[in-house]
């Protein structure tokens, strides 16, 4: 099957591009057809992300009917076909749609976000990242997270969305402090039985020139540093007297290093970000947490159905931030002009007090 959809917009983010790619790959999988991305589409799809692991993902694959050969009875031919019917009942179509731009915002997210396709997605993502690191001559780049990931201490990674949403977006919003405190308290309660004494928390955001996803985001770096630093300080203050020693560290290296870190930490907390969503999908985290608002609007609207249908991985938790109002609409930030330097303290105060 030749995968050819409407050209990806130049401003489309890293996570959006992964959604388009895995949509095409998964449709080929479900239809048991070969996958091929033409050169012209490949060049458009990779765009300005040539220096990431996107070029190392397979542009051509063959799917044989391996369901019958699976040693896992849950991945057998009959089980897979039954699962495919579940997806159809949720509105998933297995015909390739040329106009597809944002599969993660519709039922098509579930074509690749499910336990049957995830082994393929995870294997190919890890292989692509490994090849990316192998291609680098700088040993510091290759081993940038080795020490932290091999640490005996437990690790949490938070992806704190900033940058572009300072100017408002109807689907991407700021998570407020109580969202993170709710999840931290869950994790700490689970760790009590493990006698954990130290906990490292990495807060990933757009804080450095190397870490921005788009060149235009560089103008927001000072504001994001100010906001995320205040957030870190508030967390440190809140847990200062906790019996577990919590260390909060800001981090932003480059797209691949940050993505790789989020994939491998035991605990991952996402905001409204497809970048973080794809790290959670591709990763082997003990637990991943997602808000019930964001660009995955279909998932948010049908979360109970998807959980009951056993579509979501059991290690993924959807947190009800809409009911608890643990978020701040980015469109409101722009409307109130809180992104301006003279009013930016209002944004910080709101996020840290809700």
Task: Give short descriptive properties of this protein.
Rossmann fold, 43% helix, 16 helices, 2 domains, alpha/beta
Largest sheet: 6 strands, parallel
CATH class of the largest domain: Alpha Beta
| Average pLDDT reading | 86
Order of strands across the widest beta sheet?
A: 6-5-3-7-8-9
What sort of overall outline do the alpha carbons produce when their principal axes are compared?
globular
Number of helices: 16
**Oligomerization:** single chain
Termini gap: 49 Å
Q: How many domain modules?
A: 2
* CATH homologous superfamily caption of the largest domain: HUPs
Order of helices and strands: HEHEHHHHHEEHEHEHEHEHHEHEHH
Radius of gyration: 20 Å
**Could you give the count of β-strands?**
10
Structural class by sheet pairing and helices = alpha/beta
